[in-house]
Design brief:
Layout (H helix, E strand, L loop, with lengths): L4 E4 L3 E8 L15 E5 L1 H11 L5 E3 L1 E3 L2 H12 L8 E3 L5 E8 L4 E6 L8 H11 L5 E4 L5 H13 L3 E5 L8 H4 L2 E7 H8 L6 H10 L7 E4 L5 E5 L2 E5 L12 H14 L4 H15 L10
Parallel strand pairs: 1-4, 1-9, 2-7, 5-6, 9-10, 10-11, 11-12
Antiparallel strand pairs: 2-3, 7-8, 12-13, 13-14
Length: 293
């Protein structure tokens, strides 16, 4: 069976604590009780895609531990196919340490664990088995860059489409950038890859247009200002609805997962961006990286 959407990415156990404000370097603050949940950018985006109506196949790795079992159970219960996820014995399941301030802003430190053990050859074999013309491969950068690049080349050979969320931001090969359709970045990530200063919607639109000579299409998310997009069919801005912000932790992943689900269903980029904006706005109204359906 050909998969419409394959999500290559990380799966973590999230440990989250709420604080009145983020500490300064060297400072110790008291926070609230620690909450434990499933997370990781790949897992978050796969679940967001499933909640948007897709049937995503998740490709990743977890440890042979209780955290790994809990992650697979949560993903499976959420409508994600986890049959190709590797269980590795030489590393623990990934962990994310998250602090959330009262205003909803967050800081995150990730210990990759098993996410760093994803095998490129196994990923290529999975793509060969499941991908065909029109299959969307969605990936982020919490897994080894060489694995992402190899997977992108494999999906291109099968006639598929690469959606790359350049997060966490890092320098990537131009060959990988050149196959992305779209490249999805927030304002700071867009500044890093384009060299442009992004201060508002207009400057984000200019940056997106400027990146089109390096990738097929671009989406730049702007938080409460929605998102801009640019591609072969034009460019535009989708405004975000005004909502009460509780926690921004899962907003970006909710956006990307919904966008990929729409693209996998054959939607145009503008329609996919609109779905992403709605999903991101819904996500910030809940605490945690994986808000309820």
């Amino acid at each position: 069976m050909t998969a419409r959407l394959i999500v290559l990415g990380s799966a973590n156990t999230d440990y989250t604590v709420v604080v009145d404000r983020h500490p300064t370097p060297g400072e110790t603050l008291l926070g609230g009780d620690v909450s434990v949940a499933t997370g990781g950018k790949g897992a978050n985006q796969a679940l967001a895609a499933a909640r948007s109506g897709a049937l995503p196949v998740f490709v990743g790795a977890v440890g042979a531990d209780a955290g790994g079992r809990a992650l697979l159970d949560a993903l499976g219960a959420g409508g994600v196919d986890v049959s190709t996820v590797a269980r590795v014995a030489d590393a623990p399941t990934g962990v994310a340490l998250i602090t959330v301030a009262r205003d909803g802003e967050n800081t995150i430190v990730v210990a990759p664990g098993a996410n760093g053990r994803i095998d490129a050859d196994a990923v290529v074999a999975t793509i060969a088995d499941l991908a065909g013309p029109g299959t969307v491969l969605l990936s982020q950068l919490e897994v080894p860059l060489d694995v992402v690049h190899t997977a992108a080349e494999a999906i291109e050979q099968r006639g598929g489409r690469v959606v790359l969320n350049l997060s966490p931001a890092r320098e990537i090969p131009e060959g990988l950038l050149g196959v992305t359709d779209p490249l999805v970045v927030n304002a700071s990530e867009a500044e890093a890859v384009s060299g442009a200063s992004i201060t508002d919607v207009a400057s984000a639109q200019r940056a997106a247009q400027g990146l089109l000579d390096r990738c097929h299409s671009v989406v730049i998310t702007l938080g409460g200002d929605g998102a801009v997009w640019a591609g072969a069919d034009g460019a535009g801005h989708v405004a975000a609805p005004r909502v009460d912000v509780v926690d921004t932790t899962g907003a970006g992943d909710a956006f990307v997962g919904a966008l990929a689900a729409e693209l996998a269903d054959g939607a145009a980029l503008q329609q996919a961006v609109s779905a992403g904006v709605r999903s991101g706005a819904a996500a910030v109204q809940w605490r945690g990286a994986q808000p309820p359906r």
